[in-house]
Design a protein that fits this description.
The chain has 368 residues and is an alpha+beta fold. It folds into 4 domains: 2-152, no CATH class; 155-234, GMP Synthetase, Chain A, domain 3, CATH 3.30.300; 260-301, no CATH class; 310-367, no CATH class. Helices cover 25% and strands 25% of the residues. It has 9 helices and 16 strands. The strands form 4 sheets. Strands 1, 2, 3, 4, 5, 6 and 7 form a 7-stranded mixed beta sheet that branches. It has a 4-stranded antiparallel beta sheet with strand order 11-12-13-14, with no helix packed on it. Strand 1 and strand 2 (25-31) form a beta hairpin. The longest helix is centred in the middle third of the chain and has 28 residues, at 154-181.
Length: 368
């Protein structure tokens, strides 16, 4: 009996990364159909079956198809129009493609059958290529994977568009109810599910809120299931989205819905200003990108002398004051207060002496 059950669970399917536009959540789902980026589907979310958009094949995630220097690497909020599939970076740059210009292109609903199949070439032969355009491959899945119900029908698309309009009215009504009951809470957004008569209201608050009477008011007004969920300020930014200090979409909104911990130590390791105004995002918390780049800085600094260590140049000891990973250099201070900028390529670790040493060429040029 157990063997038969295992045989039913072990099956092959296409694995996709699906984004829910209603609450900006992303999930990995399986399907026995081939979909391409931008296809609307009905997929499971943490709140129930809802509208989803195919971001790409999850089987290709991990960067195996990434070519260094490619400008075709986009976040989960970016989709490529079907007319651009198969073009290289040089082609897109010549035509002013929005992907290479850092602009999110608008897209319309298209079924997977209408999208042109990408050319069957290896990443090395196709030039700068993105794993999203690689033909989806079937992989083995177990019984725990969530399954996409299918491609969204025109009726479901229409209902989704109608829900967007209804959500704006629901936000207005809910805010009036909150004000009437004088509740200390800030309504963030509302969302109606596609698969069932259920409304989700997301709010922020500094304290716990007793919203039981508010739920009764909303149920009597909307005649459907009501769910109120308290979220944090980082989740508020993830759901609503916006432009960060770099001029691009919020990382939590456009790249990942996972909010990793961010600490001040990460900013120190990257030699950034510890001014909270400069290293905080619009949500008031430390920038998410600090955690994305932290591991890179730790890895790169292993090939540099530690800050505070000393290097002998021309018989004098110089102290390493600062390391600049981006310029691949380090700043040294001399015994008499002089400052020296030393390129990373001119210093190496000597196994023989057990010290960091400067190349003879640089030392001779420095002393001449």
């Amino acid at each position: 009996m157990s063997e038969k059950k295992e045989e039913v669970q072990a099956q092959k399917a296409y694995i996709y990364l699906v984004k829910s536009p209603g609450n900006n959540d992303m999930s990995v789902c399986a399907s026995d159909s081939v979909f391409y980026p931008g296809t609307y589907v009905i997929s499971p979310t943490r709140y129930g079956m809802d509208m989803g958009i195919i971001v790409g094949s999850a089987a290709g995630l991990g960067g195996s198809c990434y070519t260094p220097g490619s400008t075709r690497v986009c976040g989960a909020c970016h989709f490529c129009p079907k007319s651009e599939l198969g073009k290289t970076d040089s082609d897109l740059a010549a035509s002013g493609d929005p992907l290479t210009m850092g602009i999110t292109p608008s897209f319309e609903f298209v079924s997977s059958m209408e999208i042109e199949t990408p050319p069957e070439t290896e990443p090395e032969e196709a030039g700068l290529w993105d794993s999203r355009y690689k033909e989806p491959q079937m992989v083995e899945v177990d019984g725990d994977v969530e399954w996409i119900r299918g491609i969204a029908t025109p009726e479901e698309i229409k209902r989704y568009q109608e829900n967007i309009v209804a959500e704006q009215e629901a936000i207005k009504i809910c805010k009036e109810k909150i004000a009437a009951r004088k509740l200390d809470m800030k309504l963030v957004t509302a969302h109606f599910l596609i698969s069932e008569p259920k409304a989700l209201f997301f709010f922020t608050s500094d304290d716990r809120v007793d919203f039981r009477e508010l739920v009764k008011d909303l149920v009597s007004g909307f005649r459907m299931r009501i769910e109120l969920r308290q979220i944090g300020v980082r989740d508020e930014a993830r759901v609503l989205g916006g432009l960060a200090v770099c001029g691009r979409d919020f990382c939590c909104h456009g790249i990942s819905d996972k909010l990793d911990p961010v600490t001040i130590k990460m900013a120190k390791e990257q030699n950034l200003s510890l001014n909270s105004m400069k290293i905080s995002g619009p949500c008031g918390r430390l920038l998410c990108c600090l955690s994305y780049e932290y591991d890179f800085y730790l890895e790169e600094k292993q090939s540099y002398p530690p800050e505070g260590s000393r290097i002998k140049i021309g018989g004098e000891l110089y102290k390493v004051q600062e390391i600049n990973i981006l310029s691949k250099s380090m700043t040294l201070s001399g015994p008499e207060g002089g400052v020296l900028v030393l390129p990373r390529t001119e210093v190496r670790w000597s196994e023989k002496t057990g010290h960091w040493e400067v190349s003879r060429k640089f030392e001779s040029e420095f002393l001449s």
